[in-house]
Model the fold of this input.
Amino acid sequence: MGAAAMLISPPCSGPADPIPLHDKEGRVFTVRPLLPEDREALEGFYADFEPKRAAQGLPPEGGPRVRRWLDNVLRSGTHLAVLDAGRLVGHAMLIPTEREHVSEYAIFLHQDVRGRGLGTEINRRSAEIARTMAVDRLWLSVEPHNRPAVRSYEKAGFRFRPGTIYSPEVEMEMDLHDTAA
Ligand SMILES: CC(C)(COP(=O)(O)OP(=O)(O)OC[C@H]1O[C@@H](n2cnc3c(N)ncnc32)[C@H](O)[C@@H]1OP(=O)(O)O)[C@@H](O)C(=O)NCCC(=O)NCCS
Done:
């Protein structure tokens, strides 16, 4: 994700209530706004996260780098915590960009909970949350070989941006007002 795209948005923007989510086997997870008191758990989540630097060099490797990265990304946007019986197992973020009403989207799930449909569900919910804010479009960049990411984004309604398909990092977007998405 592009660090240059970070801008400040009101800290109160975003969903208020926890949202229950089910994986493909019916196990219940919760998505809720990330709270300041989650910071230690979030650092622990990224310390455990494997493989490090899996997605465009993120998450960074090592406590100091993770802390610097979090200081940067948490400064703006809407951040969601994914919980499994109280344990923080995921972090999704909607970060304002320099393009008006366009937010950058990124998601990181703990390796223990991948591949069971959760990422796709969270992408869908994040889009719904963005729709309730003054966001018209979501944008992201992803390495095309990251098949679970690309597939989960496509299933949630993201589409490739023309002209980026053969790049080392493809760009995807979702028009939040396109009912066909
Ligand atoms: C990317 C990520 C959020 C996806 O979430 P997930 O819960 O693992 O994904 P889902 O279970 O929803 O699966 C999405 C789709 O990808 C498919 N998929 C998984 N692995 C695949 C592979 N190697 N090749 C092709 N498709 C694959 C799944 O089958 C599923 O499609 P289906 O439901 O039609 O079968 C998660 O894997 C993750 O956090 N990865 C590490 C961090 C990362 O890469 N983040 C993205 C930053 S750009």
Q: What stands out?
A: Strands lie at 19-22, 28-33, 78-84, 87-96, 102-109, 137-142, 159-160, 170-175.
